[in-house]
């Protein structure tokens, strides 16, 4: 990636190269609720949002999208890098639950926000602290979780200075958020309910009445993969076990 400053511009714009690691990760407490309160709602984006603008001939493209795991976030970054192979910089930042992928994918990462968030940002060749950190700060200030943002920059030949870069990267993320659907959602988790065919109609009726999303697969037994609000999980499981006289196998 092209380093913005060079020659006399280093003194004029103070955009000297800093030999710091290319990214920074933070582990932050994601909730101010009392320990054990894992039902707190949180803000996220429901849809992808994007924006673009130019500053002194440099083009900035901001993108934000919902993700649930570190794996999804890293996959999104790679996708953007592949899409903008000719960009001068691709600056990412994300906030997702700090859980292992196997645990996160099984329980749906939204169910773990009571613990800690992994906050990641990279300057991708821009002067240290001028790009990734401002992008991440916007996510923090907006109290958004389970999100990934990337800012693509095409260098226009004119240095913007540290302050100019900070404002540009912050604006790109802020404007992208405005183009996305920001929602407040409750923590969810995935459970799997397995029953014999004779009990499948009963379980389906309970899930429909509970107004939860689910998918059913019919093999030797009928398996329902259910996305249920975390606070309602115990009640729903009790209803299913009661209605099937304990014949249901529930994997939480």
Structural overview:
Helices cover 32% and strands 32% of the residues. It is an alpha+beta fold. The termini are far apart. The strands form three sheets. Strands 1-6-5-7-4-3 form a six-stranded antiparallel beta sheet, sandwiched between helices. Mean pLDDT is 83; it is low at 5-22, 27-37 and 100-114. The chain is built from seven helices and twelve strands. The protein has helices at residues 9-13, 70-83, 101-107, 132-141, 161-179, 197-210, 233-243; strands at 23-29, 42-45, 49-55, 58-66, 89-97, 116-122, 147-154, 182-185, 188-195, 213-218, 222-229, 249-251. The chain folds into two domains: 9-185, Ribosomal Protein S5, domain 2 (2-Layer Sandwich); 188-251, Alpha-Beta Plaits, CATH 3.30.70. The chain is elongated, with a radius of gyration of 22 Å. Helix 4 crosses helix 5 (161-179).
Distance between the termini: 45 Å
Rg: 22 Å
> What is the helix tally?
7
Helix content: 25-40%
Give the strand order, joined by hyphens, for the main sheet: 1-6-5-7-4-3
The CATH architecture name of the largest domain reads 2-Layer Sandwich
Total domain units: 2
Anisotropy-based shape: elongated
* DSSP, total strands: 12
Q: What structural class do the secondary elements suggest?
A: alpha+beta
Catalogue the unreliable spans: 5-22, 27-37, 100-114
Mean pLDDT: 83
Sheet of most strands: 6 strands, antiparallel
CATH C-level class of the largest domain: Alpha Beta
The SSE string, one letter per element, is HEEEEHEHEHEHEEHEEHE
In the CATH scheme, what's the topology name of the largest domain?
Ribosomal Protein S5, domain 2
In CATH, the homologous superfamily of the largest domain goes by the name Impact, N-terminal domain
Report the sheet-strand fraction. 25-35%
């Amino acid at each position: 990636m092209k380093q913005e400053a060079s020659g006399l511009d280093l003194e004029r714009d103070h955009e000297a190269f800093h030999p710091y690691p290319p990214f920074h990760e933070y582990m932050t407490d994601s909730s101010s609720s009392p320990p054990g309160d894992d039902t707190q709602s949180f803000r996220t984006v429901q849809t992808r949002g994007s924006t673009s603008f130019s500053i002194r001939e440099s083009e900035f493209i901001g993108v934000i999208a919902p993700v649930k795991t570190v794996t999804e976030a890293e996959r999104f970054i790679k996708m953007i890098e592949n899409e903008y192979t000719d960009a001068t910089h691709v600056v990412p930042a994300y906030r997702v639950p700090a859980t292992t992928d196997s645990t996160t994918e099984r329980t749906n990462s939204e169910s773990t926000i009571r613990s800690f968030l992994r906050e990641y940002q990279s300057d991708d060749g821009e002067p240290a602290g001028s790009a990734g950190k401002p992008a991440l700060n916007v996510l923090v200030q907006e109290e958004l979780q389970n999100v990934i943002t990337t800012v693509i920059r095409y260098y226009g030949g004119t240095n913007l200075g540290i302050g100019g870069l900070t404002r540009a990267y912050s604006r790109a993320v802020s404007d992208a958020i405005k183009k996305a659907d920001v929602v407040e959602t409750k923590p969810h988790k995935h459970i799997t309910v397995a029953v014999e065919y004779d009990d499948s109609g009963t379980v389906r009726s309970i899930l429909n009445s509970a107004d939860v999303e689910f998918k059913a697969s019919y093999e030797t037994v009928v398996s329902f993969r259910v996305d249920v609000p975390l606070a309602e999980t115990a009640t729903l499981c009790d209803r299913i076990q009661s209605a099937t006289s304990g014949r249901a196998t529930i994997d939480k």
